[in-house]
Design goal:
2 copies of one chain form a homodimer. The first copy, chain A, is an alpha+beta fold and about 80 residues long. Helices cover about 35% and strands about 35% of the residues of chain A. Chain A contains 2 helices and 3 strands, in the order βαβαβ. Chain A has helices at about 15-25, 50-65, and strands at about 1-10, 35-45, 70-79. Chain A has a 3-stranded antiparallel β-sheet with strand order 2-1-3. The interface of A and B includes residues 33, 36, 42 and 65 of A. β2 (about 35-45) of chain A pairs antiparallel with β2 of chain B, so a sheet runs across the interface.
């Protein structure tokens, strides 16, 4: 079973990498880019067969390792 | 208009970060994790109003900056 986790910075948390990308895009003459926010994606290959159990495990993985819940949000897609 | 870009490593490209996370998860007693692949997410805030035009621009941004198309794939979600 596949699980995909998106980890993004919480609103209000500064994103210097996003700012740098936004600046670089304007240097490349891409106008009309009002904001860029960066984040991470984790694609997990799990041996689980039950989606509910898999979601609970991935939730625990996010809490313990994949996301810094002080400054990051995460969302989980199973299957 | 919002656009979301997922950038992930092409199949066959080594993902040392993913391997490290997989190892860390097993250290935390998460068994049954057969593989971890990492990637990036870019959330773009665009002034575009036409989705087709926006998709073409984001495609060009990926080709020129957001993705290293030699080793990475990208997919674009608009709206």
């Amino acid at each position: 079973m596949k699980a995909r986790v998106h980890v993004t910075l919480k609103t209000g948390v500064l994103d210097p990498q996003g700012k740098a990308i936004q600046h670089a895009l304007s240097q490349l003459d891409f106008d009309g880019v009002e904001g860029v926010r960066t984040g991470k994606v984790f694609e997990l290959e799990l041996t689980d067969t039950d989606q509910t159990h898999a979601r609970e495990r991935v939730e625990a993985m996010c809490q313990q390792l994949l996301a810094n819940t002080v400054i990051e949000n995460y969302d989980i897609e199973i299957g």
